[in-house]
Amino acid sequence: MPNSDTSHVVERLALLRAAMRQQQIDALIVPSADPHLSEYLPPRWQGREWLSGFTGSVGTFIITPEFAGIWTDARYWTQADQQLANTGIQLMKLTSGASVQYVDWLAAHLKSGQTAAVDGAVLGLSIARLLEQALQAKDVALRTDIDLLDQVWTDRPALPAAPVYEHLPPYASKTRIGKLADLRIAMKQLGAQRHLISTLDDIAYLFNLRGADVNYNPIFLSHALIAPTRATLFVADGKIPSVLRAALAEEGVDVAPYESVAAALAALPADSTLLIDPRRLTYGTRQWVPAKVKVIEAINPTTFAKSKKSEADAEHVRATMEQDGAALCEFFTWLDQTLADPQRAPLTEVAIDHHITAARARRPGFVSPSFSTIAGFRANGAIMHYRATEAQHSIIEGDGLLLIDSGGQYVGGTTDITRVVGVGAITADHKRDFTLVLKGVIALSRARFPRGTKSPMLDAIARAPLWAEGLDFGHGTGHGVGYFLNVHEGPQSISQSAMPEPHTAMEPGMITSIEPGLYRPGQWGIRIENLVLNRPAGQTEFGEFLDFETLTLCPIDTRCIDAALLRDDEKRWLNDYHATVRKRLRPLVSGDALAWLETRTEELS
């Protein structure tokens, strides 16, 4: 995935440095963020990618007159090495848990009297505080009032204009009125009269609304201000149809222009109390709140509320998993038949994306992919967030492992699954690595733990089989998943880089991925991923316990397993899982796909 044209990067950096000189800026920070701190960004805020050519979803870009570097984590190191080659931009490797390492770099390299700059509108408030503290200690000024990209990005995209629509019953199992009432109770408990929300998934959840402003996530650009009796939704003119706007008004929700949130916050009464979440708000947005207003800082109550799916939500997710699993049966049937055909045209990684999306699109309730499909053959599978493009991809031929990580957005849920299949002849080393990763999946899938266990504490369970062999992987073991919302959702995170703080506690109804992996750069990558649901698992004298219900329904390729490495209880788990997959998917497939399902779910002895 090399950067095929580095001249654009060199030219753009030269223009940017000229603008920096004009503004007397010694270091510019370009985060991967928008005014809502989204993971996936509307094109207007993909400035770091536009400047550098690095397409990873995470990375902080720092430019000085003599230096340019991108800080990113282990998921993207191989990709960044390739895409940044010959650009003059250095890859700065973030180690686990060191996501603000660039702050220390700035403090060490900038001199007293110099100036750093960042667009405050896209700088997280909690990061801004760390940055201010570190730079002030070195007598370095920090400017947050300027967006230098606007001066050099002459064809910068406009704000997205996709319409907003309702997420309707039966899939929306709780009404807007009910959710707003719950939120106001939580606000009152925290001592707040008003609450500002800027995170787009929180807003979509609260108002039972969806949109298409961000690829893969059914959300829309907006802010929301919740008052004691009414709420205001700040969204661009024309995005909410008049009928929906009238329905919102009847339920106590006013609609105002997107840009008017600044004036609304400036007009807050002097005696008001405002709840904000410093991890889910930008520095620039925080500046709109007058000093006279008392501010309470706590996690958005909606972040907890949307993470705990109701039983009605869970039933819709189960049905969605069946449809998604049936689509995957059809896809993998096609893949096996294509690979077995000696007369076939060359099969590319790009074709995998097209065919898997088409299979899902034939299923009821499908809206879009939930992220960009990762189809990596051989060495490309070792690039954790690899994406094949028409310009850069591999042909799937010969022998090796093919990793496919994909997902779908359905009105009844969000899916995310990774499977690895063997192409041609696979080796004993392939099978050993695959089986060790599978052992990690099984270990965590079978775990039982006290309710309230901090999610990062579970990470080691999935790593233990790999650690025992001196192996590891450079990403988290699991992330929360939304309900027809973002495929990555908090507050839970099964990751050694996440802090085991109170808000990461595991609660019933949470949906989380289990996805250990193993990556050998230049050779192959393996990841096996299922989604699981937290469910009650009994009460003892030590308290209430939870375990996992596996939601994902798709065979795990037993052709890649070294059965000698699995204990009898691990084989039983796999055989029981496959029996469930077969039983639930059999009514939804027929013909060759049914035959494929029966074959791939045969017992492993």
Architecture blueprint of SSEs:
Layout: H1 6-23, E1 27-30, H2 47-52, E2 60-63, E3 68-72, H3 77-83, E4 90-93, H4 101-109, E5 115-118, H5 125-136, E6 141-143, H6 149-152, E7 165-166, H7 176-190, E8 194-197, H8 200-207, E9 209-210, E10 223-226, E11 231-234, H9 242-250, E12 253-256, H10 261-266, E13 273-276, H11 283-286, E14 294-297, H12 301-307, H13 311-340, H14 349-361, E15 366-369, E16 374-377, E17 400-406, E18 408-410, E19 413-414, E20 417-423, H15 428-445, E21 448-450, H16 459-467, E22 478-480, E23 489-494, E24 511-514, E25 517-520, E26 524-527, E27 530-540, E28 543-550, H17 568-585, H18 591-600
Parallel strand pairs: 1-5, 3-4, 5-6, 8-13, 11-12, 13-14
Antiparallel strand pairs: 1-2, 2-3, 7-9, 8-10, 10-11, 15-18, 16-17, 17-20, 18-19, 21-28, 22-23, 24-27, 25-26, 27-28
Helix pairs in contact: 4-5, 13-14, 13-18, 15-16
Domain Peptidase M24 C-terminal: 544-604
Keywords: Hydrolase, Metal-binding
Domain Creatinase N-terminal: 12-142
Summary tags:
Creatine Amidinohydrolase, Chain A, domain 1, 605 residues, six-stranded mixed β-sheet, 20% strand, Creatine Amidinohydrolase, 3 domains, 28 strands, single chain, alpha+beta
How does this model look, in words?
The protein is α+β, with helices and mostly antiparallel strands. The protein folds into 3 domains: 6-152, Creatinase/prolidase N-terminal domain (Creatine Amidinohydrolase, Chain A, domain 1), CATH 3.40.350.10; 165-305, Creatinase/prolidase N-terminal domain (Creatine Amidinohydrolase, Chain A, domain 1), CATH 3.40.350; 308-599, Alpha-Beta Complex (Creatine Amidinohydrolase). It is built from 18 helices and 28 strands. The strands form 8 sheets. A 6-stranded mixed beta sheet has the order 4-3-2-1-5-6, with helices on both faces. Strands 12-11-10-8-13-14 form a 6-stranded mixed beta sheet. Strands 21-28-27-24 form a 4-stranded antiparallel beta sheet. The model has no long low-confidence stretch (mean pLDDT 94). Belongs to the peptidase M24B family. This is M24 family metallopeptidase. It comes from Rugamonas aquatica.
